[in-house]
Amino acid sequence: MGFYKLVLTMTQNTVNYSNLLRYDAKHVWHPYSSMSNPAPVLAVVSAKGVYLELADGTRLIDGMSSWWSALHGYNHPILNQAILDQSQKMSHVMFGGLTHEPAVTLAKKLIDITCDNLQHVFFADSGSVAVEVSIKMALQYWFAQGESQKSKLLTVRNGYYGDTFGAMAACDPDNGMHNMFTGVLAQHIFADAPATLSEGAWKAEYIDDIKNKLKNNHQQIAAVIIEPMVQNAGGIRFYHAEYLQQLRSLCDQYNVLLILDEIATGFGRSGTLFAYEQANIQADIVIVGKALTGGYMTLAAVLTSNKVVQGIEADGKGVLMHGPTFMANPLACSVANASIELLLESPWQENVCAIQQQLEQGLKPCRQLKTVKEVRVKGAIGVVELYEPIDIKWSQPLFTELGVWLRPFGKLVYLMPPFIITKNELKQLTSAVCEVVAKI
User: Fold this and answer.
1) Contacts by residues 35-39 (CB-CB < 8 Å, ≥ 24 positions apart)
2) Percentage of the chain surpassing pLDDT 90?
3) Are 403 and 338 in contact (CB under 8 A)?
4) Residues designated catalytic
């Protein structure tokens, strides 16, 4: 079927979804997929609350919040209205030389809810781009002060920061998703991953490797970049708050900036509004994204301190060399403002606590399975780690038959549901995980 004929039949509500899926398989490249041997995909026609409705009428409970972004579920009337209202004024306007109320209001909201030293906001298109901006800020900070030798990042293994080239260079170079590009990426310094909480109480040696890396390389390190408290796409690993506290002190001791990537953990996912709050520290740069707009539109932000701004201005110019076309898009900023208000006005702490307790109980049976290495829960995050990678082509249809949308990766089957999920809906998710994992 030709493309324009396909579009026409869609608008007439007589679309043949088998043709749509065939066209998709032939022409549409999905994330982390092969065009020659594409994985099956499901056609979604609508979404509301925690449910995705498929073309055949099947309804699936989304246990992933659309890659951890749809905090309030789908099709929320308040978020819908925010976009409709803004669309009547302007959908987009360039941010170079112009400004607008949604962006300024959003900047104020972000400054008000983050740590005191963060006083400046740079808007970006996506989480990966925001990581790029944060790296550029750190490098330019030192370049402007005549210390161009400080051009490397220090980070930890099992980290994941995005799919663009600067972000890829900070991902785990051996076990991450981008190891084929190692030879052409910027070369940074990697320390051992933080010990997981399952290893028990804090031990002094947990910080030794990154401490030694800082001691021996601080002259060339511009910044440490790390995901606070939770390493997300690199393994969904939880670590001790003491690690972050000591890391902050070490960055101060060796005159290195600290960048915290809150793209996945921000806005309540880990149990506090931002994960760094659990360590009671302040960063030089904090990155937010994903749930910033409640999953409605792509938008991210980089928050930074007066120290960083003044450092970049040390050369007398102070011009940050970055400017995305769709930076601070008014529609995205408007729905982000509505999403933050909706979150803060809700009993989100109680909801996340309840989700955590139910995840712990619901996933408990998996601990008895021989194929399961570990079950771990933090905030509204539940993880079943297997000893061997799970075959997604085998597991995906099983989850669909059980009425849930879950997409494992590697050795991990994980849940990050919307905060509005009910007990019965969450029970269906955890039961599905236990049932599928038990069949391995």
Assistant:
1) 39/392, 39/393, 39/396
2) 88
3) no
4) 32, 160, 261, 290
Q: Which residues pair with 260 in a beta bridge?
A: 226, 286
DSSP character string of 154-216: EEETT----SSHHHHHHS-TTTSTTGGGGGGSPP-EEEPPPPBGGG-S--GGGGHHHHHHHHH
Nearest CA among 393, 413, 410, 339 for reference residue 160? 410
Ramachandran category for residue 28: left, alpha or beta (phi over 0 → left; psi -120 to 50 → alpha): beta
* pTM attached to this predicted model: 0.94
Between 120 and 174, where is the model more confident? 120
User: Quick one: pLDDT at residue 6?
Assistant: 44
In angstroms, the Cα distances linking 100 to 104, 291, 295 are 7, 22, 22
Task: Map tokens 């606070």 to a residue.
Answer: 228
Asked if residue 341 lies in contact with residue 294, where contact means CB atoms within 8 angstroms, the answer is no
Residue 13 binned pLDDT confidence (cut-offs 50, 70, 90):
very low
Domain-wise residue ranges, the chain: 61-75+347-438, 80-345
Under DSSP, is residue 363 helix (H, G, I), strand (E, B) or coil? coil
Residue 276 has what DSSP assignment?
G
What gap in Å lies between CA 254 and CA 246, rounded to an integer?
Answer: 12
Helical ranges in 198-274 per DSSP H: 208-217, 241-253
Chosen CATH of 80-345 out of 3.40.190.10, 3.40.640.10, 3.40.50.300, 3.40.1830.10: 3.40.640.10
Strand (E) or helix (H) holding 3: helix 3-11
**Domain covering 61-75+347-438: architecture:** Alpha-Beta Complex (3.90)
